[in-house]
Amino acid sequence: MATVHLFKGRRWFGWYNTPGSYEIAKQYGQLANARLWDGLFPGPNRDPAQLFGLDGKPGPRFLAAHSGSVIQRSAHPAYLVARKAQSIARPTPIRNSRRATCDYTVTTIDLVHEPPLQIHPNRLESHLPLLALVPIATSVAACVVCALVADWGCFVSIALGILASGVACFAIGSGQLTFTHPSPAVGAPPGDGVLIDDEGIIVLRGCEGAVNSVTRGRFCLKFEGEPRYSSIGVCSVGLTLQFLLQLLFIPQGTLFGQVMFVVTLGVSWAYNAYLSVLDKEDIQTDILKDVLHLDEAEHIRKFGCGTRTAQVVFTALSLQSPRPMKLLDELLPNDTPVWQHWKKVLERKLLAKEEFRFGESDWPTHSAFSFEDRELLNGLFVDAREAWDGWQTAFRQRDEESIDEK
Q1: Burial class of residue 101 in the structure, from the number of CB atoms within 10 Å of its CB (0-12 exposed, 13-18 middle, 19+ buried)
Q2: What is the pLDDT along the chain (406 residues), one digit of tens a residue?
Q3: What DSSP assignment string belongs to 219-284?
Q4: CA-to-CA distance for 149 and 22, rounded, in angstroms?
Q5: Which end of the chain is less packed: N or C, by CB atoms within 10 Å?
């Protein structure tokens, strides 16, 4: 049932006798919102998308590069984007003379398309609905065989399972998967910013509406009869009655009919187990990429840096923020005199769009820094220069061509 909204035509292929009908009824019966349904299926009236695992997981903290606004917990699409970034196994290494490993990653995502404020994503095409023909054929064949041997108890039990499961799958699958995001304010600056994840930094580049769709968008399910969801309540009652009636009729059947009943459950269980192996979040990520018109090879790139400072410098260069100091302070809260001096030098070069080559003018004129401080500052300058070299190789030419086109 949890995958019924993700695959095209999936809701039409639930006509088989499946185990666990009572558990399905208890879980999805909570969607029905009325006193009668609340009495039959106690529990909180949850949002349909959250109940089916299509929304509700918080994403990483987001910092906007131009406006400076901070979203402490971004939306579910940002969670999917961060998960996608983590799944990229081999980042492009950025040369670092101080570290041999690339433990600090920066994933850049160019959001080239602003989706409509409300859109019905295309469900994925798959062989899974056709694969459901196996348990359907098994259940129907077992039902016919039981009728031929006049085992009406098992015939009724299997037929009830087919009917209750098929109607429930159709009713629950009738929900329309919808993606929404808020409208950006008039005159809003570009939405470029960073998702700050424990596994790395994710740079989002695009217009305010496109970035909004990731940081504040959501998936939802639209059903007829909202917010009561009475059809789901009726289907849940049907699944419960099926469970009770099967307890009554199965003992009255013959051994052969009972074996047929168990065979239908076994085949259906195997099909359901195969569906449960599928990662719904991977499937939903593919749907989100389609909504955002993201080409993974063209719009998503991941880089590995040797140090945290190189990672932050690469991020700042990728964003070209008009407020680089806020970004540097957020990502590197160190505020000792050495770090403050280094940040000021970087801020000046970022605003002036200067080459990251550091000479005598970038060093402090006073002698307040100790030998250790100067060693640290030199290492920070080395990290910044090598991050600049890596960014220039990866992005500068493409960014300049994009600016010329605009």
Answers
A1: exposed
A2: 778 888 888 889 999 999 988 888 988 888 888 888 888 888 887 888 888 889 999 999 999 998 888 999 999 999 999 999 999 988 888 888 877 677 899 999 999 999 999 999 988 888 877 899 999 999 999 999 999 999 999 999 999 999 999 999 999 988 899 999 999 888 778 889 999 988 899 999 999 999 999 999 999 999 888 888 888 899 999 999 999 999 999 999 999 999 999 999 999 999 999 888 888 899 999 999 999 999 988 999 999 998 999 999 999 999 988 889 999 999 999 989 999 999 999 999 999 998 998 988 888 876 678 888 889 999 999 999 999 999 988 876 555 545 454 4
A3: EEEE-TTTTT-HHHHHHHHHHHHHHHHHHHHGGGS-HHHHHHHHHHHHHHHHHHHHHHHS-HHHHH
A4: 29
A5: C
**Of the candidates 389, 398, 403, which has an alpha carbon nearest to the alpha carbon of residue 298?**
398
Tokens encoding 249: 């009729």
Residue 290, SS3 per DSSP? helix
CB-based contacts of 285-288 (< 8 A; 24+ apart in sequence): 285/80, 285/81, 285/83, 285/84, 286/124, 287/6, 287/121, 287/122, 287/123, 287/124, 287/177, 288/77, 288/80, 288/81, 288/121, 288/179
Question: Residue 356 CB: number of other CB atoms within 10 A?
Answer: 20
CA–CA distance, 200 with 45 (Å, rounded to integer): 36
Nearest to 394 by CA among 295, 292, 305: 305
Of 132, 225, 118, the closest CA to residue 177 belongs to: 118
Task: Enter the pTM of the model.
Answer: 0.88
- Residue 191 vs residues 60, 90, 209: alpha-carbon distances, Å: 16, 28, 7
Distance CA 311, CA 305 (A): 6
Place of tokens 């939903």: 284
How many CB atoms within 10 Å of residue 58? 12
Phi/psi for 112 (5° steps) reads -90, -10
Q: Are strands 70-71 and 61-64 parallel, antiparallel or unpaired?
A: antiparallel
Query: 16 and 160 in contact (C-beta within 8 Å)?
Result: no
Q: Which helix (H) or strand (E) holds 64?
A: strand 61-64
Across the beta sheet with 118-119, the strand order is 118-119, 176-180, 218-222
